[in-house]
UniProtKB/TrEMBL annotation:
Protein name: NAD-dependent epimerase/dehydratase domain-containing protein
Organism superkingdom: Bacteria
Organism: Paramagnetospirillum caucaseum
InterPro entries reported for this sequence: Epimerase_deHydtase, Lipid_A_modif_metabolic_enz, NAD(P)-bd_dom_sf
Domain NAD-dependent epimerase/dehydratase: start-end pairs: 52-290
Pfam families assigned to the protein according to its UniProt record, in alphabetical order: Epimerase
Amino acid sequence: MTISASMYRRADQVAFTVNAHLPEEYQAEILTEQLRAAKEVLAPRGLARRKVLVVGGAGYIGSVLTGKLLDAGYQVRCSDLLLYRNGVTVTPYLNHADYQFMKGDLADPAHLEKAFDGITDVVILAGLVGDPITKKYPEASGRINDDGILRLIDACNGRRLNRVIFVSTCSNYGLIPEDATADENFELTPLSLYAKSKVAAEQKLMALKGKVDYQPTVLRFATAFGLSPRMRFDLTVGEFTRAMFRAEDLLVYDAHTWRPYCHLKDFSEVIRRVIEAPPERVAFEVFNAGGDVNNATKQTIVDTIKAFLPAAPVRYQAHGADPRNYRVNFAKIKRVLHFEPAMTVRDGVAELLGALNQGLFSDVEVNKPFYGNYELAYP
Ligand SMILES: NC(=O)c1ccc[n+]([C@@H]2O[C@H](COP(=O)([O-])OP(=O)(O)OC[C@H]3O[C@@H](n4cnc5c(N)ncnc54)[C@H](O)[C@@H]3O)[C@@H](O)[C@H]2O)c1
């Protein structure tokens, strides 16, 4: 199909712009999909624009995604329990006409009812994120990551939601053979409580075909890096870069182990791509989210940082506590959504060093619970 000027005009009426870097035929598909959504999702509700509920929108990824969605013309409602006293991350958005914040627990059905009101699409980011925090708070993890998320999945039904995106993790692959790369059909071997809950939620979602009135998409995210209003320094790229910048005695466990990484801006783009894709490309689909270019060992990350900070001291040790080792195949997201990351690990390191050089993040030691998932402010 060719893209006609009238399609642009009609798409403009729903405040929509298409990414001009995408292949022309795919741009046309996206525009057609926006016209369908305008007719079938917006018109019956009397809405002019889509309103996206971002559950966990005040976190490391969510507070960057929010800006991306607002810039793209979406209305955003953030539901978040502010478990890390991270309310400051939403303050810049509070006076944006298209933004609304609702503090609340995803495990609280009364909160969910209010949060869902008038919503067209949902992105589920919230939960206790990471192996250490779920291990430290197993009860809260069960209440939120298991019971709460499973109930939230149920609560999505009956609302004629346009997209329901569940953000999962490549940690689900656990430990895979040295010479293998995990595509979406690769066997899942979740090693932690955190990943086991994600796998259970994925399985529940994928078994809903024909039973619910929405069509979910699962995104298995690589490990995140990049600047955010809620910086996390408990993730490899951020942790290593800051430690080496401060010339701390960085101890790296199992330097040869592989993981995929992805910048927050790229994750935000992935979510936008799913929100805007035709349903036949994303309905009941699982995607590894990231790009082959950012599959890296911890040694590669250290070497990347060393290129900026050659004198930084680093020590190595084998047999650390975290046995995860997985190289991931990102062919599907490239083929189906034309997604490839714009940012490399090197870009992320340079960006963070720029901020550190300006004296930012000098309060990490005194404000530790904000800067990583170490400690919950859980009611
Ligand atoms: N950061 C990564 O490297 C990474 C990698 C793979 C997948 N993911 C996934 O991406 C998502 C977001 O990760 P993040 O790094 O932004 O984590 P984060 O911990 O920074 O953000 C999570 C947010 O969820 C909120 N939250 C937690 N429990 C809640 C509840 N019961 N009700 C409402 N809000 C609640 C927290 O307050 C926090 O703001 C998670 O689903 C995570 O599993 C992250």
